[in-house]
Amino acid sequence: MGRIDGCLQRSRHRVPALRARSSRLSEQGQAEGVQSSETQNLGEGVLYTCALRPGLVYGAGKDEPLLRALSWMGWGLNRVTLRGLPEAKSDMIFFQNLIDATVLAGTQLAEGAAGAQAGGAGWSTRKGPACSGQSYCVTDGQRGGGDGDGGGVQPGGLQAFMDGVLEGLDFTTSKVLRLPVFFALAIAWAMELVCKMKLTEAPPSITRSEVRKLVENRCSDIERARKDLGYEPRVDRNTALRTIVEDLKRDGWGRHTLLVPGLGYWICIPLGIWLNAVAAFKALCPAFLAPVQRFSLYIHLAVFRKLWIVRLVCVLAILAHVLEGWYAFVRAKRAGHGDTAPRWLIQTLILGYPSTRLVMRLLS
């Protein structure tokens, strides 16, 4: 059992390398599958194959990249984008469309293999299925410019897709910050390094290869799949988005409520902590507020008698706010309020118990 656990831990830290290797193996496997078409199968018949090259597949159960992106919504990721990402076009395919394409390809191969030997339906001049040995791009129906007939609708980008999901979940999608790509690459590199150093068991939230793919243009033409396989996307992008949003809402995703204490707490509690810190350590007090510091120290000494007690009270008060903030953050995350958990953390760090009481009331 210990050997199995060790293998699992090592595999978690090799996620970036495994992703890149799996991509290379996928390309190699498609090429070998196409090359093996129309080969003899141990004297029992002829093997006919073709390859499907889908775009980015989404909507199939738990979309890990989408869920990882949504987990960062509370930190304002919905208001941030990468330079070049809004303009980048990317082929995508809903999983139901991919299933249809797979069934159609298998049907064409099977019908062709079972057809008459002399030019039956679905056969080419090579006396085999017309799609045998071919590779077909399949997407949600958009055509890539410049590689087919030049017409059609250009594929949408990942930014537009993600914004559509966020709007369906009632998040704001207007951008206030555009980060350079090298900044995102540096963050991804740091995450991969933390994973490689085994400082955490979780895989990196994003990798450098994923960042590069975000800003690359990937456009394909599906006209050959339409002609040879009879493929036509059955689910359009808007319908797919609605399906994904409904599934996410059913799983508890969406914009949640943040309860905010009254204005009096926002004035009295930070002011009280500041006066305590000023009296205990003469901190955060400019020279022109020296009379305030002397008055605060006088009041605190009148109550607590000793300066070390005043300092202890200040440290304990700050520590209590930190612990309450962490408790509010963890409580909100575990309850599925990941989008508001960071704001619960900041609010509780500032206000302490009044905010903790609200998060307990909301999530009880």
TrEMBL record:
One of its GO terms (biological process) is steroid biosynthetic process. SUPFAM superfamilies: NAD(P)-binding Rossmann-fold domains (SSF51735). The chain crosses the membrane at residues 263-289, 309-329. Keywords: Membrane, Oxidoreductase, Transmembrane, Transmembrane helix. It comes from the Eukaryota. Residues 23-38 have a biased composition (Polar residues). One of its GO terms (molecular function) is oxidoreductase activity, acting on the CH-OH group of donors, NAD or NADP as acceptor. Belongs to the 3-beta-HSD family. This is 3-beta hydroxysteroid dehydrogenase/isomerase domain-containing protein. Residues 35-114 form the 3-beta hydroxysteroid dehydrogenase/isomerase domain. Residues 16-38 are annotated as: Disordered. Gene3D superfamilies: NAD(P)-binding Rossmann-like Domain.
